[in-house]
Structure formats: C-alpha cells, structure tokens
Inverse folding.
DNA sequence: TGACAAAACTAATTTGATTAGTTATTATAT
DNA sequence: ATATAATAACTAATCAAATTAGTTTTGTCA
C-alpha cells in the first residue's frame, strides 16, 4: 500500500495544476487521484467533496495572489504600487487560468478561513488610505478596481480579446484610466 | 404520449428560469424535463447535451441583453446613452443571475450564430464613433467598459458587495469614472 | 390514406462521485 | 520494544445523472 505522504498543500497544488491544464469544471477526482498515485476514494481523507475542493482552490488562489502582490509591492508606493498590484494579479490569472476560474466562480460571501481574509482588498485599501481619500470613496474605488481587474482577466481568459498583446495594452490603459479617476477624487477634497 | 409542443425558445426560457432559481452549475436535465412535462431523454430531440444547453443559454442571454439595450437607447445619445446601456446590462444580470452566470462562464470565442453577433459590443462601438475617438482608442475603451461591467455584475452576483444599494451607487460611480476617461480622450485630439 | 419525419417513450449503458467496510501504516505512550 | 489509537490507504458497492439505443406514437403532407 505505502503511503503517499500527502497534505492539503500538495493536493491543492496538484488540483490547481490539473485545473490549469483543462478547466475548473473539468477537474475530477479520478484524474486527481491518478496524479497523486492513490485511488479516488482515498481523496476523501483529505477533501470533503469535489465541489469543496474547487472552493478550497478558490481560497488557495486568493492566498497566492495576496502573497505575490505583497511581495511585489515591497519598496513601491503611490500610483506605481497600484499599477504593479494590478499587473501581478493579471499575470497570476493568466498563468493560472484554472485557479483563476475558481476564484471568479465561487462565492466569496462564504467566508474564507480567518488567516487569509482578502489580502488583495486589504492592500488596495491601504493604498487608498495612503492618499487623501475619504473612506467612503475608497470603498467605491476598491469595488471598481476589483470589478475591472477580475472582469478583464475573465474576458481575456475566455478569449474575448485577441491574443496579440494588445489586450495587455488595453488592460494597462484601463488601469491608468482608473488611476486618473483616483486623482480626481483627491483634488476634489 | 401527447406532444408538448416545445421549441428551442420554450426550452431556453424554462432552462433560463431554472438556472435563475438555482445556478447554472446546478441546472440539470431531470428538473428541466420535469418542468416541461417530458422525460429527460426526450430533451435530446431539442438539445445536443447539457453542456451545450448552457452554452445556448449564454447566447440567448446576450441576445436578450442586446435587444433590451437597443430598445432602451431609442432617442438617447451621448453620455446618457452609455449610462443607460450600462444600467440595462446591470439590471439584466441582476434579474437573471443564472443566465448571467452562463454569459460570464462560457467561451465567447466560440462564435455565436451569425444572426446575433455581439450586439452590445456593436452598440457601444457606435457610441464611440458618434464621438471623435480614434478607432484604436475605441477598441481599448470597449474592452475596458465590458470588463468593468461584467466584472462588477459578477462580483455583485456572488455577494462580494453588501446588498444595501450601495453597490449600485458604486457601479454608477465607476461608469462615470470611465465616461470621464472617454472625455479625456476626446480632448486629447 | 399512407408514408415519412419529428418527438416522445422505456430500457440500458456509462461515468463519476460518494459511501461502507476493511486493512495497512504511522505515531504515541507505556 | 510493543500495544494502541489515529490516519490514510484500499476494494467493493451504491447512487445519481447524463447519455445512447431502440421503439412507438403523433402529426404532416403528398
């Protein structure tokens, strides 16, 4: 029999890889078990259900993105920080299409484990506070940024834009758009 | 036996209603057949597969939205037209969460039937052309608007924002943001 | 009215998730 | 070291749902 020495991490990594190779909806336990060299039912020692696994993958994705952004922002501030954060998110979505799908599809109202609240949100919030923006406006801005970024990544993922690099240009263009809006709010004060 | 007098339309309407009641991923042939008073296998006289049905529902949704927007824009122009178009889309997504999910999840690169290209895109494009915006910039703007609108609707759908009406405020706020950006582009010329 | 196509049916197959029940492995505590 | 408990694997069985096969009914139209 010989144990496979699995932990949640390894399972999520493997499931994530599988999801990235095909898609979140094609992710299945048979394949996953195969990749891990165990039988499908054995997965239930680690995972509640397939659906729950997809959910876990969503949480995992947000954690990863949060880490990457936090790391990328060291030593950067102001507009550059916003640009960089957006860029890192976009890169992550592009590199991990399956995980990104999970992030886009699964309810985020259902709370994530306490350790990892929405780090991305948190970071963007701080960037707003570092400026002179009313709390109320910051909430709006945050929602707008998140919507734009995730929406763009989703459309790009599903091939709504040509894959000739012009999409990336549009994306940055839009980020600057929004940043300009942020500046306008500052001036208003 | 007695025929049920079904057509694609009726099936899509019923499937759409079911999807709206639960979600696109919970949509299933058993329930659908039940609602239509036929046996599940009989559905295959009208539909290629469950997955294809979801895809059809996506196309159906875009058609509906296109119609509604076209209708809503009669006699309106300029910024108001943009605002109205965005509003109508948002309303549709809110009223038809299941169909909207299909619209958000399914590949749009796979072409839609010739009769109904992306009408929404088409309309927004014309709104740009009515202004003095370079073709190239219009492409960017379009992508940005689409990303924002769909992204926002998606996040709202999954409960990322509180349901107290403030989300709607944020949405409109963002639309004005983007419209301001459009104006900036005009001035640049 | 008779034949053909469409649309329904029932029965069977397939696939994949999940559950039940069992056994081997590892860790822990005497 | 060894007994015991917990964990993680296994096989076999169940269940649900989509799909396929093969048949019958119904409506249309020559």
């Amino acid at each position: 029999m010989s144990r496979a020495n699995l932990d949640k991490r390894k399972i999520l990594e493997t499931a994530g890889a599988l999801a990235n190779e095909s898609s979140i909806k094609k992710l299945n336990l048979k394949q996953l078990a195969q990749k891990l060299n165990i039988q499908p039912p054995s997965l239930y020692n680690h995972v509640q259900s397939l659906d729950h696994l997809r959910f876990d993958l969503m949480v995992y994705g947000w954690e990863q993105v949060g880490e990457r952004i936090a790391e990328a922002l060291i030593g950067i501030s102001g507009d550059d920080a916003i640009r960089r954060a957006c860029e890192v998110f976009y890169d992550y979505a592009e590199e991990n299409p399956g995980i990104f799908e999970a992030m886009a599809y699964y309810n985020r109202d259902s709370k994530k484990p306490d350790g990892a609240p929405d780090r991305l949100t948190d970071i963007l919030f701080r960037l707003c506070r570092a400026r002179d923006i009313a709390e109320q406006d910051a909430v709006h801005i945050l929602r707008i940024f998140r919507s734009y970024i995730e929406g763009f990544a989703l459309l790009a993922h599903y091939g709504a834009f040509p894959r000739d690099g012009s999409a990336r240009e549009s994306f940055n263009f839009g980020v600057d758009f929004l940043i300009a809006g942020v500046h306008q709010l500052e001036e208003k004060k």
